[in-house]
């Protein structure tokens, strides 16, 4: 399989992914390149709100002299961004079924390394939702301080909105987020353009009265400080992998559309990061407490006017909605893990509109717990954010080096060198971020990663045992007919009892009706009345009374079924449980649930077949 950089058509053909255009209704529920940019790139786009600020806050420890290294550090991050975009473009071509670093690692680095990559991506996606939502809520409460006490409810409300949109389908979410994405990108590019024509800041109103976060007395910048600034700024690269993880969500030819989306994302993100860093140096911006770097840049470029508030509003909305990247990528990744027996198989199921509904709901549930746990505070979650994605980046880059070495197409040495350099940079970033943020919560990620991998392997072993017992993959013996014995639990005579016995006699060679009696006086009278009515009715089926000293219902029936199984080892025992099906959902509250109790006990204690006969109650008189 030869995959050449820069030639998507050749790469797709070599990878065997030449696809016909989508035909049919399913195409409406898949993404175009533009829609993919809106649905899967919000995380990366929104990171420009905190990526440059992370660099500035680290370099500020060295005073004004340290801030002079903002642009070089940003250029290094932009170079890494270019490496990642080129790499993930090749990942898309080589792995058109999605999965990103998980798929690469699974094929080229082994199953367990693939699970490490998958676990890192899952952690990153979940934390992205929590960080994005809390950051958006923080922007809102900064504008309206009276809402600060309600920030947890605001976060949960935004999460509920994003979840509901994604349950309707990834295309609907892309359409909804098209305008906020365009507004944010347009406002940032306009701010950069206007700022480049300014000789100095137009306004410093937003920073006035706020304490400076600039270090004093420092005149030198060491390699460690630059390394920390680089690692901190790499938080702006989170989300770059989302497109490669969700390739199946695109319209055919899915791989080509995903590649175009990845390149567009890299270009926009690189221009914004470099442009903002140039403005930071141009305006000699100094970080202050309580005001974001992006707000100061908007103030300096536009002045403290309507345009300033447009930038703030666009940032707030996009940060809140950046969680959509996770909703687009994680359910697809979970479906791949489920297909490989590392997650429950229900995560591989698709609902209408091509939605992995169970993955969306699971992501929303875990994110809600994180939001409540953190109290809606972004600073509690940010130290955990970038570690997972750096691990995934590193594993993916190393896997692609192995890919090039194994396939050896034209110019494979250059491609392998590029990916190897990227692996070195992202690996260093992962180590530095983990070390510097360990006591601030990074230890949770260090603990959660191996626990997730162990969980994946436990699930896989469980599925393997089930498959072995079911003899999956083998041709079974020819089916044979066994004598059938049907047990019907009854509590009285009714039309339901008649239909149950009729169905049982159609199913089995022998039918036994059983009823559970209790020693209480009132219960004995009811049992005698049932016995007398049964003899008068004479349905041709024996009535067996099971005496129970307690009010138990399920255990006496399951015990009797065990006795039948032991005394009739060559017979297939079936328990047919008659139940009523109400006309309206609320009427189920009126049922005594006796059928469910019996079914649970028989399923728990025996290997008998359980058949639940539904007698539908309609509103008409018939």
Can you walk through the features of this model?
It is a single chain. Helices cover 62% and strands 6% of the residues. With 622 residues, the protein is an alpha/beta fold. Helix 4 runs antiparallel to helix 11 (223-233), helix 7 crosses helix 18 and helix 9 (151-167) runs antiparallel to helix 17 (357-374). The termini are far apart.
Could you give the topology of this structure?
Blueprint: H1 8-14, H2 33-40, H3 42-46, H4 51-59, H5 63-67, H6 70-94, H7 101-108, H8 111-143, H9 151-167, H10 170-196, H11 223-233, H12 242-245, H13 254-282, H14 293-302, H15 306-321, H16 324-339, H17 357-374, H18 378-407, H19 412-436, H20 442-470, E1 483-489, H21 495-507, E2 510-517, H22 521-537, E3 542-547, H23 554-567, E4 571-581, H24 594-605, E5 609-616
Parallel strand pairs: 1-2, 1-4, 2-3, 4-5
Helix pairs in contact: 2-10, 2-13, 4-11, 6-11, 6-13, 6-19, 7-8, 7-18, 8-9, 8-15, 8-16, 8-17, 8-18, 8-20, 9-10, 9-17, 10-13, 10-14, 10-15, 11-19, 14-15, 16-17, 18-19, 18-20, 23-24
């Amino acid at each position: 399989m030869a995959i050449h950089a820069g030639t998507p058509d050749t790469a797709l053909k070599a990878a065997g992914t030449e696809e016909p255009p989508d035909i049919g209704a399913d195409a409406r529920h898949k993404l175009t390149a533009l829609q993919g940019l809106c649905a899967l790139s919000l995380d990366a786009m929104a990171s420009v709100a905190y990526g440059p600020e992370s660099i500035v806050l680290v370099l500020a420890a060295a005073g004004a002299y340290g801030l002079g290294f903002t642009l070089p550090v940003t250029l290094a991050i932009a170079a890494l961004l270019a490496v990642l975009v080129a790499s993930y473009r090749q990942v898309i071509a080589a792995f058109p079924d999605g999965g990103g670093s998980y798929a690469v690692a699974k094929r080229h680095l082994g199953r367990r390394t693939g699970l490490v990559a998958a676990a890192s991506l899952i952690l990153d996606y979940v934390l992205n939702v929590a960080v994005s939502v809390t950051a958006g809520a923080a922007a809102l409460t900064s504008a309206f301080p009276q809402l600060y006490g309600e920030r947890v409810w605001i976060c949960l409300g935004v999460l509920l909105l994003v979840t509901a949109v994604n349950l309707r389908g990834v295309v609907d979410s892309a359409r909804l987020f098209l305008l906020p994405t365009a507004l944010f990108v347009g406002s940032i590019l306009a701010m950069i353009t206007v700022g480049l024509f300014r000789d100095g800041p137009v306004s410093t109103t937003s920073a006035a009265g706020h304490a400076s976060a600039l270090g004093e007395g420092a005149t030198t910048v060491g390699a460690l400080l630059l390394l920390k600034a680089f690692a901190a700024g790499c938080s702006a690269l989170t989300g770059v992998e989302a497109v490669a993880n969700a390739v199946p969500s695109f319209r055919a030819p899915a791989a080509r559309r995903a590649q175009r989306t990845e390149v567009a994302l890299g270009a926009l993100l690189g221009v914004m990061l470099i442009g903002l860093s140039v403005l930071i140096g141009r305006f000699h911006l100094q970080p202050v407490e309580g005001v974001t770097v992006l707000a100061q840049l908007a103030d300096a470029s536009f002045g403290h006017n309507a345009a300033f508030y447009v930038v703030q509003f666009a940032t707030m909305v996009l940060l809140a909605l950046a969680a959509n990247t996770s909703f687009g990528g994680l359910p697809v990744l979970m479906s791949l893990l489920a297909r490989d027996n590392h997650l429950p198989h229900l995560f591989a199921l698709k609902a209408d509109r091509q939605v992995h509904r169970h993955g969306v709901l699971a992501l929303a549930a875990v994110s809600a717990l994180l939001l409540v746990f953190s109290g809606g505070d972004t600073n509690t979650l940010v130290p955990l954010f970038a570690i997972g994605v750096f691990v995934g980046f590193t594993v993916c880059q190393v896997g692609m080096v192995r890919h090039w070495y194994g396939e050896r197409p034209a110019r494979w040495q250059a491609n392998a060198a590029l990916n190897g350099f990227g692996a070195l940079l992202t690996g260093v970033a992962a180590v530095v971020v983990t070390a510097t943020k360990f006591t601030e919560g990074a230890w949770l990620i260090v603990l959660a990663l191996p626990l997730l991998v162990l969980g994946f392997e436990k699930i896989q072993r469980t599925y393997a045992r089930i498959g072995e017992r079911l003899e999956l993959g083998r041709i079974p013996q020819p089916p044979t007919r066994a004598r059938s014995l049907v047990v019907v639990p009854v509590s009285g005579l009714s039309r339901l009892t008649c239909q149950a016995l009729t169905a049982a006699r159609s199913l089995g060679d022998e039918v036994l009706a059983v009823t559970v009696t209790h020693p209480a006086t009132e219960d004995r009278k009811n049992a005698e009345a049932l016995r007398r009515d049964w003899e008068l009715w004479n349905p041709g089926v024996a009535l067996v009374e099971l005496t129970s000293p307690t009010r138990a219902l399920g255990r006496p029936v399951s015990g009797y079924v065990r006795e039948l199984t032991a005394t009739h080892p060559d017979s297939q025992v079936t328990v047919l449980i008659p139940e009523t099906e109400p006309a309206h959902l609320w009427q189920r509250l009126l049922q005594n649930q006796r059928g469910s109790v019996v079914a649970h006990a028989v399923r728990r204690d025996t290997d008998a077949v359980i058949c639940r006969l539904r007698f539908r109650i309609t509103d008409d008189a018939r």
